Amino acid sequence: MTSLPPQPLSPLDGRYRSAVTGLADYLSEAGLNRARVEVEVEWIIALTDRSLFGSSPLSPADKAALRALYTDFGQTDIDWLAEKEAVTRHDVKAVEYLVRDRLSALGLDAVAELTHFACTSEDVNSASYALTVKRAVENVWLPKLRAVTAALADLAREHRDAAMLSRTHGQPATPSTMGKELAVFAWRLDRVARQIEGGEYLAKFSGATGTWSAHLAAAPDVDWPELSRSFIESLGIGFNVLTTQIESHDWQVELYDRVRHAGGILHNLATDIWTYISMGFFAQIPVAGATGSSTMPHKINPIRFENAEANLEISGGLFATLASTLVTSRMQRDLTDSTTQRNIGVAFGHSLLALDNLQRGLTEISLSRHVLLADLDANWEVLAEAIQTVVRAEIVAGRSQITDPYALLKDLTRGRRVGGPELAEFVQGLDIGDAAKQRLLALTPAGYVGLADALVDELA
Protein backbone atom coordinates (compact mmCIF):
# COMPACT_ATOMS: atom_id res chain seq x y z
CA MET A 1 0.00 0.00 0.00
CA THR A 2 1.43 3.38 -0.97
CA SER A 3 1.69 6.19 1.56
CA LEU A 4 -0.74 9.07 1.35
CA PRO A 5 0.47 12.58 0.64
CA PRO A 6 1.06 14.60 3.86
CA GLN A 7 -2.26 14.91 5.69
CA PRO A 8 -3.41 16.74 8.82
CA LEU A 9 -3.59 14.33 11.73
CA SER A 10 -6.03 16.44 13.72
CA PRO A 11 -9.57 16.97 12.37
CA LEU A 12 -9.23 20.58 13.55
CA ASP A 13 -6.62 21.08 10.82
CA GLY A 14 -8.56 19.06 8.29
CA ARG A 15 -12.31 18.47 8.23
CA TYR A 16 -13.18 21.27 10.67
CA ARG A 17 -10.52 23.83 9.80
CA SER A 18 -12.96 26.45 8.53
CA ALA A 19 -14.80 26.51 11.86
CA VAL A 20 -11.68 27.11 13.98
CA THR A 21 -9.35 28.99 11.68
CA GLY A 22 -9.53 32.21 13.72
CA LEU A 23 -7.77 30.54 16.63
CA ALA A 24 -4.72 29.72 14.50
CA ASP A 25 -3.80 33.40 14.34
CA TYR A 26 -3.04 33.20 18.04
CA LEU A 27 -2.74 29.64 19.34
CA SER A 28 -0.73 27.99 16.55
CA GLU A 29 3.05 27.61 16.70
CA ALA A 30 3.34 30.50 14.27
CA GLY A 31 1.03 32.63 16.39
CA LEU A 32 3.13 31.92 19.45
CA ASN A 33 6.35 32.78 17.61
CA ARG A 34 4.88 36.04 16.36
CA ALA A 35 4.06 36.96 19.97
CA ARG A 36 7.59 36.00 21.02
CA VAL A 37 9.00 38.36 18.39
CA GLU A 38 6.65 41.05 19.69
CA VAL A 39 7.91 40.62 23.27
CA GLU A 40 11.57 40.62 22.20
CA VAL A 41 11.12 43.75 20.08
CA GLU A 42 9.16 45.66 22.71
CA TRP A 43 11.78 44.78 25.34
CA ILE A 44 14.51 46.30 23.15
CA ILE A 45 12.40 49.43 22.74
CA ALA A 46 11.72 49.61 26.49
CA LEU A 47 15.44 49.35 27.32
CA THR A 48 16.52 51.91 24.76
CA ASP A 49 13.73 54.29 25.77
CA ARG A 50 15.45 54.41 29.17
CA SER A 51 18.89 54.84 27.57
CA LEU A 52 20.25 51.89 29.51
CA PHE A 53 23.91 50.89 29.06
CA GLY A 54 24.64 53.96 26.97
CA SER A 55 21.96 53.28 24.38
CA SER A 56 19.78 56.02 22.95
CA PRO A 57 16.05 55.99 22.30
CA LEU A 58 15.28 54.70 18.85
CA SER A 59 13.78 57.06 16.30
CA PRO A 60 10.10 56.71 15.44
CA ALA A 61 11.13 55.28 12.07
CA ASP A 62 13.38 52.66 13.68
CA LYS A 63 10.65 51.71 16.17
CA ALA A 64 8.16 51.32 13.33
CA ALA A 65 10.61 49.16 11.39
CA LEU A 66 11.21 46.99 14.46
CA ARG A 67 7.51 46.62 15.20
CA ALA A 68 6.94 45.55 11.62
CA LEU A 69 8.87 42.40 12.51
CA TYR A 70 5.79 41.15 14.32
CA THR A 71 2.98 43.10 12.67
CA ASP A 72 4.15 41.80 9.26
CA PHE A 73 5.24 38.38 10.54
CA GLY A 74 4.60 35.85 7.78
CA GLN A 75 5.60 32.69 5.96
CA THR A 76 9.19 33.82 5.31
CA ASP A 77 9.71 34.26 9.06
CA ILE A 78 7.97 30.97 9.84
CA ASP A 79 10.27 29.12 7.45
CA TRP A 80 13.37 30.93 8.77
CA LEU A 81 12.52 29.94 12.34
CA ALA A 82 11.90 26.32 11.37
CA GLU A 83 15.34 26.07 9.78
CA LYS A 84 17.05 27.78 12.73
CA GLU A 85 15.26 25.68 15.35
CA ALA A 86 16.38 22.54 13.54
CA VAL A 87 19.89 23.63 14.47
CA THR A 88 19.36 25.27 17.88
CA ARG A 89 16.85 22.67 19.14
CA HIS A 90 15.42 25.59 21.13
CA ASP A 91 12.40 27.54 19.95
CA VAL A 92 12.95 30.76 21.90
CA LYS A 93 16.65 30.86 20.99
CA ALA A 94 15.63 30.64 17.35
CA VAL A 95 13.37 33.66 17.85
CA GLU A 96 16.26 35.56 19.43
CA TYR A 97 18.43 34.80 16.41
CA LEU A 98 15.64 35.93 14.08
CA VAL A 99 15.40 39.30 15.84
CA ARG A 100 19.18 39.72 15.80
CA ASP A 101 19.24 38.92 12.08
CA ARG A 102 16.54 41.48 11.35
CA LEU A 103 18.26 44.11 13.52
CA SER A 104 21.38 43.69 11.40
CA ALA A 105 19.34 44.05 8.22
CA LEU A 106 17.86 47.27 9.59
CA GLY A 107 21.27 48.66 10.50
CA LEU A 108 20.55 48.44 14.23
CA ASP A 109 23.49 46.24 15.23
CA ALA A 110 24.35 48.71 17.99
CA VAL A 111 21.40 47.47 20.06
CA ALA A 112 21.63 43.80 19.08
CA GLU A 113 22.95 42.76 22.50
CA LEU A 114 19.78 44.08 24.08
CA THR A 115 17.90 41.27 22.32
CA HIS A 116 16.67 38.85 25.00
CA PHE A 117 18.66 40.89 27.53
CA ALA A 118 18.74 39.23 30.99
CA CYS A 119 15.76 37.11 29.98
CA THR A 120 15.10 33.49 30.60
CA SER A 121 13.04 31.80 27.93
CA GLU A 122 10.09 31.69 30.28
CA ASP A 123 10.07 35.49 30.55
CA VAL A 124 9.37 35.63 26.83
CA ASN A 125 7.13 32.56 26.85
CA SER A 126 4.96 33.63 29.78
CA ALA A 127 4.32 37.00 28.16
CA SER A 128 3.72 35.39 24.77
CA TYR A 129 1.25 32.83 26.10
CA ALA A 130 -0.58 35.51 28.06
CA LEU A 131 -0.85 37.63 24.91
CA THR A 132 -1.92 34.84 22.58
CA VAL A 133 -4.42 33.24 24.95
CA LYS A 134 -5.89 36.63 25.88
CA ARG A 135 -6.31 37.61 22.24
CA ALA A 136 -7.73 34.23 21.25
CA VAL A 137 -10.26 34.33 24.08
CA GLU A 138 -11.26 37.96 23.60
CA ASN A 139 -11.24 38.07 19.79
CA VAL A 140 -12.44 34.58 18.85
CA TRP A 141 -13.75 32.32 21.61
CA LEU A 142 -15.73 34.75 23.76
CA PRO A 143 -17.50 36.39 20.80
CA LYS A 144 -18.65 32.93 19.70
CA LEU A 145 -19.85 32.09 23.20
CA ARG A 146 -21.66 35.43 23.33
CA ALA A 147 -23.26 34.69 19.94
CA VAL A 148 -24.61 31.37 21.21
CA THR A 149 -25.84 33.02 24.40
CA ALA A 150 -27.54 35.77 22.40
CA ALA A 151 -29.21 33.20 20.14
CA LEU A 152 -30.50 31.38 23.22
CA ALA A 153 -31.77 34.64 24.71
CA ASP A 154 -33.59 35.47 21.46
CA LEU A 155 -35.23 32.04 21.43
CA ALA A 156 -36.14 32.43 25.10
CA ARG A 157 -37.93 35.70 24.38
CA GLU A 158 -39.63 34.26 21.30
CA HIS A 159 -40.96 31.26 23.22
CA ARG A 160 -41.46 32.88 26.61
CA ASP A 161 -45.17 32.04 26.63
CA ALA A 162 -44.89 28.57 25.08
CA ALA A 163 -46.21 26.38 27.91
CA MET A 164 -44.54 22.99 28.18
CA LEU A 165 -44.69 20.06 30.53
CA SER A 166 -41.58 19.84 32.66
CA ARG A 167 -39.84 16.55 33.27
CA THR A 168 -38.16 16.21 36.66
CA HIS A 169 -36.44 12.85 37.01
CA GLY A 170 -37.84 12.26 33.53
CA GLN A 171 -41.38 12.26 34.90
CA PRO A 172 -44.25 14.72 34.26
CA ALA A 173 -43.88 17.72 36.58
CA THR A 174 -45.09 21.28 37.11
CA PRO A 175 -45.28 23.02 33.70
CA SER A 176 -42.91 25.76 32.63
CA THR A 177 -42.39 27.51 29.29
CA MET A 178 -39.80 26.67 26.69
CA GLY A 179 -38.65 30.27 26.83
CA LYS A 180 -37.97 30.14 30.54
CA GLU A 181 -36.05 26.86 30.20
CA LEU A 182 -33.84 28.31 27.45
CA ALA A 183 -33.39 31.47 29.52
CA VAL A 184 -31.91 29.35 32.30
CA PHE A 185 -29.09 28.31 29.97
CA ALA A 186 -28.55 31.84 28.67
CA TRP A 187 -28.35 33.18 32.22
CA ARG A 188 -25.89 30.49 33.30
CA LEU A 189 -23.64 31.08 30.29
CA ASP A 190 -23.71 34.85 30.72
CA ARG A 191 -22.60 34.50 34.33
CA VAL A 192 -19.59 32.32 33.44
CA ALA A 193 -18.74 34.56 30.48
CA ARG A 194 -18.56 37.55 32.82
CA GLN A 195 -16.21 35.61 35.10
CA ILE A 196 -13.98 34.82 32.14
CA GLU A 197 -14.05 38.44 30.99
CA GLY A 198 -12.88 39.50 34.45
CA GLY A 199 -9.99 37.04 34.55
CA GLU A 200 -6.30 37.91 34.66
CA TYR A 201 -3.60 37.15 32.09
CA LEU A 202 -0.26 37.24 33.85
CA ALA A 203 3.41 37.16 32.85
CA LYS A 204 6.70 37.23 34.71
CA PHE A 205 9.85 39.03 33.56
CA SER A 206 12.34 38.47 36.36
CA GLY A 207 15.08 36.25 35.01
CA ALA A 208 16.32 32.71 35.50
CA THR A 209 14.74 31.98 38.89
CA GLY A 210 12.58 35.04 39.37
CA THR A 211 15.15 37.07 41.34
CA TRP A 212 16.48 39.64 38.79
CA SER A 213 19.98 38.42 39.66
CA ALA A 214 21.53 38.96 36.21
CA HIS A 215 19.77 42.31 35.88
CA LEU A 216 21.25 43.60 39.11
CA ALA A 217 24.70 42.30 38.19
CA ALA A 218 24.57 44.37 34.99
CA ALA A 219 22.90 47.50 36.43
CA PRO A 220 22.49 47.50 40.22
CA ASP A 221 21.01 50.99 40.33
CA VAL A 222 17.99 50.23 38.08
CA ASP A 223 14.63 49.46 39.67
CA TRP A 224 14.24 46.28 37.67
CA PRO A 225 10.98 45.08 39.26
CA GLU A 226 9.30 48.36 38.41
CA LEU A 227 10.78 48.40 34.89
CA SER A 228 9.60 44.82 34.34
CA ARG A 229 6.14 45.62 35.66
CA SER A 230 5.70 48.69 33.47
CA PHE A 231 6.96 46.76 30.44
CA ILE A 232 4.60 43.82 30.91
CA GLU A 233 1.66 46.09 31.64
CA SER A 234 2.44 48.11 28.50
CA LEU A 235 1.70 44.93 26.55
CA GLY A 236 -1.83 44.88 27.98
CA ILE A 237 -1.34 41.98 30.38
CA GLY A 238 -0.78 41.68 34.13
CA PHE A 239 2.49 41.24 36.00
CA ASN A 240 3.37 38.49 38.46
CA VAL A 241 6.20 39.70 40.69
CA LEU A 242 6.70 36.55 42.78
CA THR A 243 7.63 33.51 40.72
CA THR A 244 10.17 30.74 40.19
CA GLN A 245 11.77 30.42 36.77
CA ILE A 246 8.24 30.19 35.37
CA GLU A 247 5.09 32.20 35.86
CA SER A 248 3.01 29.92 38.04
CA HIS A 249 0.18 29.43 35.52
CA ASP A 250 -2.55 29.91 38.12
CA TRP A 251 -4.34 32.35 35.84
CA GLN A 252 -4.38 29.66 33.17
CA VAL A 253 -5.79 27.11 35.61
CA GLU A 254 -8.56 29.55 36.53
CA LEU A 255 -9.33 30.33 32.89
CA TYR A 256 -9.41 26.71 31.73
CA ASP A 257 -11.59 25.67 34.65
CA ARG A 258 -14.05 28.44 33.76
CA VAL A 259 -14.04 27.57 30.07
CA ARG A 260 -14.58 23.93 31.03
CA HIS A 261 -17.46 25.05 33.26
CA ALA A 262 -19.00 26.90 30.32
CA GLY A 263 -18.51 23.74 28.28
CA GLY A 264 -20.40 21.73 30.87
CA ILE A 265 -23.35 24.11 30.64
CA LEU A 266 -23.22 23.93 26.84
CA HIS A 267 -23.10 20.13 27.01
CA ASN A 268 -26.22 20.21 29.20
CA LEU A 269 -27.87 22.47 26.60
CA ALA A 270 -26.92 20.14 23.75
CA THR A 271 -28.34 17.05 25.45
CA ASP A 272 -31.54 18.86 26.47
CA ILE A 273 -32.19 20.19 22.96
CA TRP A 274 -31.45 16.71 21.58
CA THR A 275 -34.02 15.27 23.99
CA TYR A 276 -36.62 17.92 23.12
CA ILE A 277 -36.11 17.07 19.43
CA SER A 278 -36.58 13.35 20.15
CA MET A 279 -39.83 14.17 22.00
CA GLY A 280 -41.08 16.23 19.08
CA PHE A 281 -41.00 19.52 21.01
CA PHE A 282 -38.66 20.91 18.35
CA ALA A 283 -38.93 20.08 14.66
CA GLN A 284 -35.74 20.17 12.61
CA ILE A 285 -35.71 22.39 9.57
CA PRO A 286 -34.53 20.39 6.52
CA VAL A 287 -31.33 21.62 4.89
CA ALA A 288 -31.48 21.39 1.10
CA GLY A 289 -29.34 18.54 -0.23
CA ALA A 290 -28.46 17.16 3.21
CA THR A 291 -28.72 13.44 3.95
CA GLY A 292 -29.83 12.25 7.37
CA SER A 293 -29.28 8.55 6.85
CA SER A 294 -27.65 6.51 4.09
CA THR A 295 -30.59 4.05 4.17
CA MET A 296 -33.54 5.91 5.75
CA PRO A 297 -34.52 8.86 3.56
CA HIS A 298 -36.99 10.30 6.06
CA LYS A 299 -34.41 11.06 8.76
CA ILE A 300 -33.13 14.43 9.85
CA ASN A 301 -30.52 13.72 12.50
CA PRO A 302 -29.70 16.28 15.23
CA ILE A 303 -26.05 16.20 14.22
CA ARG A 304 -25.26 19.78 15.29
CA PHE A 305 -26.09 18.98 18.89
CA GLU A 306 -24.42 15.56 18.81
CA ASN A 307 -21.26 17.06 17.31
CA ALA A 308 -21.28 19.78 19.94
CA GLU A 309 -21.77 17.24 22.71
CA ALA A 310 -18.77 15.16 21.60
CA ASN A 311 -16.46 18.12 21.05
CA LEU A 312 -17.35 19.58 24.44
CA GLU A 313 -16.35 16.29 26.03
CA ILE A 314 -13.00 16.35 24.22
CA SER A 315 -12.32 19.99 25.07
CA GLY A 316 -13.43 19.49 28.66
CA GLY A 317 -11.00 16.61 29.07
CA LEU A 318 -8.16 18.66 27.60
CA PHE A 319 -8.93 21.70 29.74
CA ALA A 320 -9.04 19.48 32.83
CA THR A 321 -5.62 18.08 31.92
CA LEU A 322 -4.22 21.55 31.28
CA ALA A 323 -5.49 22.81 34.63
CA SER A 324 -4.28 19.83 36.63
CA THR A 325 -0.85 19.76 34.96
CA LEU A 326 -0.07 23.47 34.83
CA VAL A 327 -0.77 24.06 38.51
CA THR A 328 2.40 22.14 39.43
CA SER A 329 6.09 22.73 38.67
CA ARG A 330 8.81 20.76 40.43
CA MET A 331 10.81 23.12 42.60
CA GLN A 332 12.00 26.05 40.49
CA ARG A 333 11.14 24.59 37.06
CA ASP A 334 10.37 21.48 35.08
CA LEU A 335 9.27 21.08 31.47
CA THR A 336 5.89 19.42 31.90
CA ASP A 337 4.20 22.74 31.19
CA SER A 338 6.05 23.23 27.91
CA THR A 339 4.48 20.35 25.99
CA THR A 340 1.17 20.74 27.84
CA GLN A 341 0.73 24.35 26.75
CA ARG A 342 1.16 23.38 23.11
CA ASN A 343 -2.31 21.84 23.39
CA ILE A 344 -4.06 25.04 24.48
CA GLY A 345 -5.14 25.66 20.90
CA VAL A 346 -6.44 22.11 20.55
CA ALA A 347 -8.61 22.50 23.66
CA PHE A 348 -10.01 25.83 22.51
CA GLY A 349 -10.41 24.45 18.99
CA HIS A 350 -12.75 21.65 20.04
CA SER A 351 -14.65 24.10 22.25
CA LEU A 352 -14.99 26.60 19.40
CA LEU A 353 -16.13 23.82 17.05
CA ALA A 354 -18.83 22.89 19.55
CA LEU A 355 -19.95 26.51 19.82
CA ASP A 356 -20.10 26.78 16.04
CA ASN A 357 -22.30 23.69 15.84
CA LEU A 358 -24.60 24.96 18.58
CA GLN A 359 -24.94 28.36 16.95
CA ARG A 360 -25.87 26.74 13.65
CA GLY A 361 -28.06 24.10 15.27
CA LEU A 362 -30.18 26.69 17.05
CA THR A 363 -31.10 28.18 13.65
CA GLU A 364 -32.20 24.78 12.32
CA ILE A 365 -35.01 24.01 14.79
CA SER A 366 -38.56 25.32 15.16
CA LEU A 367 -40.83 24.94 18.14
CA SER A 368 -43.84 22.63 17.71
CA ARG A 369 -46.28 24.34 20.04
CA HIS A 370 -49.06 21.93 19.22
CA VAL A 371 -46.90 19.04 20.47
CA LEU A 372 -46.23 20.89 23.73
CA LEU A 373 -49.95 21.54 24.22
CA ALA A 374 -50.88 17.93 23.48
CA ASP A 375 -48.32 16.74 26.00
CA LEU A 376 -49.75 19.08 28.61
CA ASP A 377 -53.32 18.00 27.90
CA ALA A 378 -52.36 14.38 28.46
CA ASN A 379 -51.03 15.10 31.96
CA TRP A 380 -53.66 16.87 34.03
CA GLU A 381 -52.39 15.10 37.15
CA VAL A 382 -49.60 17.68 37.41
CA LEU A 383 -52.24 20.04 38.82
CA ALA A 384 -52.24 17.95 42.00
CA GLU A 385 -49.50 20.21 43.36
CA ALA A 386 -51.66 23.29 42.86
CA ILE A 387 -54.74 21.66 44.38
CA GLN A 388 -53.07 20.42 47.55
CA THR A 389 -51.28 23.75 48.03
CA VAL A 390 -54.55 25.70 47.71
CA VAL A 391 -56.23 23.30 50.16
CA ARG A 392 -53.45 23.91 52.65
CA ALA A 393 -53.96 27.64 52.37
CA GLU A 394 -57.70 27.18 52.88
CA ILE A 395 -57.06 25.10 56.01
CA VAL A 396 -54.85 27.84 57.47
CA ALA A 397 -57.51 30.43 56.60
CA GLY A 398 -60.17 28.39 58.44
CA ARG A 399 -62.17 27.64 55.32
CA SER A 400 -61.50 23.88 55.22
CA GLN A 401 -61.59 20.93 57.60
CA ILE A 402 -59.55 18.64 55.33
CA THR A 403 -56.72 16.76 57.04
CA ASP A 404 -53.52 15.82 55.17
CA PRO A 405 -54.28 17.30 51.73
CA TYR A 406 -51.02 15.91 50.32
CA ALA A 407 -52.12 12.34 51.05
CA LEU A 408 -55.53 13.09 49.57
CA LEU A 409 -54.03 14.13 46.25
CA LYS A 410 -51.42 11.39 46.36
CA ASP A 411 -54.14 8.76 46.54
CA LEU A 412 -55.91 10.38 43.59
CA THR A 413 -52.97 10.91 41.22
CA ARG A 414 -49.82 8.96 42.07
CA GLY A 415 -48.96 6.58 39.25
CA ARG A 416 -52.25 7.32 37.49
CA ARG A 417 -53.40 9.41 34.57
CA VAL A 418 -56.18 11.76 35.65
CA GLY A 419 -58.09 13.78 33.05
CA GLY A 420 -59.60 17.24 33.24
CA PRO A 421 -63.18 16.09 33.97
CA GLU A 422 -62.01 13.82 36.78
CA LEU A 423 -60.02 16.62 38.40
CA ALA A 424 -62.93 19.02 38.03
CA GLU A 425 -65.25 16.53 39.73
CA PHE A 426 -62.69 16.07 42.49
CA VAL A 427 -62.32 19.83 43.04
CA GLN A 428 -66.10 20.31 43.12
CA GLY A 429 -66.26 17.95 46.09
CA LEU A 430 -63.49 19.64 48.09
CA ASP A 431 -64.23 21.35 51.39
CA ILE A 432 -62.75 24.74 50.42
CA GLY A 433 -64.03 28.26 49.85
CA ASP A 434 -65.83 29.16 46.62
CA ALA A 435 -63.17 31.61 45.40
CA ALA A 436 -60.42 29.02 45.78
CA LYS A 437 -62.61 26.38 44.14
CA GLN A 438 -63.26 28.61 41.12
CA ARG A 439 -59.54 29.34 40.73
CA LEU A 440 -58.78 25.63 40.67
CA LEU A 441 -61.62 24.84 38.26
CA ALA A 442 -60.28 27.45 35.85
CA LEU A 443 -56.76 26.02 35.99
CA THR A 444 -55.33 23.95 33.12
CA PRO A 445 -51.88 22.40 32.69
CA ALA A 446 -51.07 24.99 30.01
CA GLY A 447 -52.09 27.79 32.36
CA TYR A 448 -50.14 26.46 35.32
CA VAL A 449 -46.80 28.07 34.52
CA GLY A 450 -46.46 30.57 37.34
CA LEU A 451 -44.05 33.39 36.52
CA ALA A 452 -42.23 31.51 33.77
CA ASP A 453 -43.07 34.12 31.11
CA ALA A 454 -41.99 37.07 33.29
CA LEU A 455 -38.78 35.33 34.40
CA VAL A 456 -37.40 35.66 30.88
CA ASP A 457 -37.08 39.39 31.60
CA GLU A 458 -34.27 38.55 34.01
CA LEU A 459 -32.00 38.15 30.98
CA ALA A 460 -29.84 41.19 30.30
From TrEMBL:
Residues 60-308 form the Fumarate lyase N-terminal domain. GO terms for molecular function: N6-(1,2-dicarboxyethyl)AMP AMP-lyase (fumarate-forming) activity. Pfam families: ASL_C (PF08328), Lyase_1 (PF00206). Gene3D superfamilies: Fumarase/aspartase (C-terminal domain) (1.10.40.30), Fumarase/aspartase (Central domain) (1.20.200.10), Fumarase/aspartase (N-terminal domain) (1.10.275.10). Coiled coil: none annotated. One of its GO terms (biological process) is IMP biosynthetic process. Keywords: Lyase, Purine biosynthesis. Residues 329-449 form the Adenylosuccinate lyase PurB C-terminal domain. Pathway: Purine metabolism; IMP biosynthesis via de novo pathway; 5-amino-1-(5-phospho-D-ribosyl)imidazole-4-carboxamide from 5-amino-1-(5-phospho-D-ribosyl)imidazole-4-carboxylate: step 2/2; Purine metabolism; AMP biosynthesis via de novo pathway; AMP from IMP: step 2/2. Its EC number is 4.3.2.2. NCBIfam families: PRK09285.1. Catalyzes two reactions in de novo purine nucleotide biosynthesis. Catalyzes the breakdown of 5-aminoimidazole- (N-succinylocarboxamide) ribotide (SAICAR or 2-[5-amino-1-(5-phospho-beta-D-ribosyl)imidazole-4-carboxamido]succinate) to 5-aminoimidazole-4-carboxamide ribotide (AICAR or 5-amino-1-(5-phospho-beta-D-ribosyl)imidazole-4-carboxamide) and fumarate, and of adenylosuccinate (ADS or N(6)-(1,2-dicarboxyethyl)-AMP) to adenosine monophosphate (AMP) and fumarate. This is Adenylosuccinate lyase. It comes from Microbacterium saccharophilum.
